[in-house]
Structure prediction request, 192 residues.
Amino acid sequence: YLEKNNFEEAKKNYDICYNFYIKNKGKDLLLYILYEYFLIEYRQKKYDKAIESAQEILQLAAENPNMNPYMLIILYGNMGEIYNIIDKDKATYYFELALDEGLKLKQYEGLHEASLQLLKNNDISKETKDKIITYFSTVKKDENNKIVNKINSTERLAQAYNFESSIKEHKKYITYYVILTCFVFLIFTVLL
Prediction:
């Protein structure tokens, strides 16, 4: 329901899950439900409630070593976007957290937007600028590696195709040779 922007139904279903996890003390999965609450509020532009949900997630995450750290990168980026509207310094803080966490984990989802937002801020440190350069260099290197792999794959495919074509050409010559040999044998047989 969340993907269809049916926030009321989404919240109703997440409430059921939330109550189930509270009863069964499933704190590991509770974080994901709280994150979904955050997304509902964030997408509805209820930023005060979204920030409260985010703070609750961060508190639980600090207490829970089993939490998936990738979720924090996106959360920090979204919080940066919220604070970008109301408090530029806090926005910078959360965008930097997203960048630091993403680089540390080598997980780049959400870092592009965070990096661009940081670059718009003229007050960022040289250290942060260096991290942004590292991020863009790493992404560019990954993109280049993908392109090289694609080219290599294409070249291998072309080589295989050329090899197959040359085999077909050889088969054709072998067929002509066999027919010619049979014809010569037939002529010899008739002449003798």
